Amino acid sequence: MDTPLNPIAVLLHLEQRAQRMRSLPELGFVIANETWQLFPYRQAAVFTAEHGDRARLTQLSNLATLSEDSPFTVWLKRLGAHCWKAMRAEDAQSAPLRRLLPDALPPSLAEEWSEWMSPYVFLLALVDPSGQRRGFLLISADEDASEQQQALLARLGATYAYCIGALARQRPALLARVRGALRKPWRKLALLAVLAAVMAMPVRLSVLAPAEIVALHATAVSAPLDGVVKSFQVDPNQSVKRGELLFTLDDTTLRNRRDVAQQALSVARADALRATQKAFDNAQSKGELASLNGQVREKEAELAWLDEMLGRVLVRAPRDGIVVFGDPNDWLGKPVSTGERIALLADQDDAGVLVWLPAADAINLEPGADIRVFLHVAPLSPLHGELTETSYQATVSPDNIAAYRIKGRITADDGKVARIGLKGTAKIYGHRVPLVYYVLRRPLAALREWSGL
């Protein structure tokens, strides 16, 4: 709509605009950017009272958002603090509109006056009908205000103050309500007593760390001899029975050696048989018979050893359980040494939790401490357990951080649903400490690390 030219009509229009605003930021925007219709100016700044003892810069004309760290804003905040202090020292019923002169300002503000301000600067106090100061409007203009404009600005300032008070009463600041509730000394003492009691309340120390469900007493399945993994007959995490074939090693070299040994044994037996036949009439053959029989026994022992090694290439489960190993493709064709662990045989009913507690988060833990495990697959159904063992020296965890290796036992009921290999987060509980120590433990540790005390 077109702005009315009649000053009274402009005043009524601005009052109506202010009364329609539903929040303090909206009202501040109208005050800073539409008051020029009544008195043209170059710059306007809105300061709103906070808690009665200070005024905060809330809006600048021609700006959608206020830049808190610009040089002009910093200087304007200092000027506003000085003006608010001077206003509070005066009577609230004094003239609402006055002109500001640099001569009346401290030197630190006056020396930058000409850099930021126009020739005519006015301060419009926003005082509501009850006499309460709601803030003020700082106006920087190129021309002086006429008597009519001064009178209309004074009337408009009272309307602005009334609207600010109405909006502030709708949703008073939380801190202001708390201050109002604590005006009486006995309430402050009661609050301090309650805070002291709460801070002294004993709570249990706790720490969070990555966790994995493991078998507490697993049996290692190792390579029985040097060789190459040929094939797996089971899948990872598969249930197996005692004696069931797990994997086989390549037997090509052993079978070739056995064939050679078999032929060597046949030759040795033939030589021994000929010597036996000649021994009846040949003294030399009789003397060689013992040596040839010894070679036969040697070849028989070598063949028996190779047969035993061929039997070992078939690796079977030593007991019932779940066979745990990685990707079979990572093992196929891989050379292994005697005793090298290839898989684990775990008991599902013997499930536990393995926790890597970072050294930076470590707390004093004793065997029997409670553990709650939140698995990734069921974060709303924690498993309960107790700590069984902890390392006294930090080692490098799978995440390449210094951590303590902690093991715990899952309780019998929860152990039925805790599948080996699942991962999650464990919460380990320590001894009880005051709440104030629980809250300040990490900040104090960081402060000591930073300060070196």
TrEMBL record:
Location within or outside the cell: Cell envelope
Cleavable signal peptide: none
Any one GO CC term of the record: cell envelope
Keywords (A to Z) from UniProt: Coiled coil
Entry annotated with the keyword Coiled coil: yes
Main subcellular location: other
Species the sequence originates in: Bordetella flabilis
Zinc recorded as keyword: no
Entry protein name: Uncharacterized protein
